[in-house]
Amino acid sequence: MFNKRVKIREAVQMDAGKEEITVMGWVRTFRNNQFIALNDGSSNDQLQVVLELGRFDDTLLKRISTGASIKATGLLIDSPGKGQKVELKASSVLILGESDPEKFPLQPKKHSLEFLREIAHLRFRTNTFGSVFRVRHGLAYATHQFFHERGFVYLHTPVITASDAEGAGEMFKVTTLPFDNTPRNEAGEVNFKDDFFGRATNLTVSGQLEGELAAMGFGEIYTFGPTFRAENSNTARHLAEFWMIEPEMAFYDLEDNMDLAEAFIRYLISYSLKNNRADLEFLDQRLAEEEKQKPQAERSEQGLIQKLEWVVSQDFQRITYTEAIDILLQSPAYKKKKFKYDVAWGIDLQSEHERYLVEKHFKKPVIVTGYPKDIKAFYMRQNEDGKTVAAMDILAPGIGEIVGGSQREERLDKLEARMREMHIPIEQMWWYLDTRRFGSVPHAGFGLGFERMVQFVTGMTNIRDVIPFPRTPKNAEF
Fold first, then answer.
1. Which residues have a Cβ under 8 Å from the Cβ of 342 and sit 6 or more positions away?
2. Beta bridge pairs of residue 380
3. How far is CA 368 from CA 314, 334, 404, 451, 452, in A?
4. Whole-structure pTM over 0.70, yes or no?
5. Does residue 3 contact residue 68 with C-beta atoms inside 8 Å?
6. How far is CA 1 from the centre of its chain?
7. How far are the Cα atoms of 66, 137, 262, 359 from residue 315, in angstroms, in the given order?
8. Which of 31, 75, 186, 323 has its CA 20 to 30 A from that of 245?
9. What is the Cα 329 distance to its own chain's centre?
10. For residue 131, with 0-12 CB atoms within 10 Å meaning exposed, 13-18 middle and 19 or more buried, which class applies?
11. What is the pLDDT of residues 241-267, one digit of tens each?
12. Model confidence over 106-124: pLDDT tens digits?
């Protein structure tokens, strides 16, 4: 039976014994026709499987190569080698799947991250991506645990929707209409009445609006699912398909919202430090090697684990957008013209501005509130000054914005007026406005980009390396 195997993560911690065990995995290396380094993905640990010389047939030995999968049974014995407590003295070896050593692209040597993206279907077998995706799993599990412990309801919001929550217009259209003979009306516009849903639809850019509807019945909900942006951004920070965590809470104001978001980030990091320690230690060491290649002035002041422990121990700095602009205007970086983008009240803060506030000025995570209403979405609650909204962004070291949220506008007249200003179709949004007509309450929510959170915790610098199969402009491989 296959399910009686012992995972290598457990086997390497066991004591030498008198009972045989069975392990299965993929061959990392095979030396001297005698020593197999075996890994099964349960951790980065490898178990050395020792084949006694003369015991196994030469035809079998020739089929054992890097990338092949095997089943090995034998006794765990004390290992005389360094760096391992035990090794498996094999009594039997069965090859489950062969691997042509001339064609297998993951030979036992250092590979660039760019190359590994080209073989994303195989990069799970490397130590780096094994660690990254085990950490990603842990953060996903911790997300559900955090909200469940607080009584939130997990809501599945639609992937196909007729609304554009952000008003951005950068959406992937969903249609069954033929491309070569698209039906059109008298004005020459596409006639969506003949389409599957009878109207124009797209892949969701956010589950927020539907989340608000549910929060008006459950009080506190969260969504955790894929979102899509047809934004032609070929950068290390953008994906066309990514995952968002979006809680929505009735009877919350902006301060409640900030408190929850800060607690959530601390919880995720603490969970990872406790439950993914070995993977983080590997990634910490990897990042340290990467940092050595940079000029001294560009190196991080902290190691990965040191940074994570520091963030957990710090209260996040809270400032207004106006205070942030003042700090940037007074900064040496601005005065020496080191910013690529200009600084003035009313701008949307760029990543370089956000990172300056976090990494140079405060040296801790920062929550910025009170953004100009002209650069924020229609649903954000308008402040009494008439210029700003009750928005908040959380800025993290090395990343910039990691959370964006706000208190939502619960006043029907204010919301409708703002929608008219921004040309949001009020008639089509009748269902959303009903929540303001029937028992409206102060409420708030935020969105956390899951991949950016994984980036922050793992120290990976390119967002394409923290999602299994990245979707980017001109790339939908695998």
1. none
2. 408
3. 16, 19, 10, 21, 18
4. yes
5. no
6. 36
7. 48, 26, 9, 15
8. 323
9. 32
10. buried
11. 999 999 999 999 999 999 999 999 999
12. 988 899 999 999 999 999 9
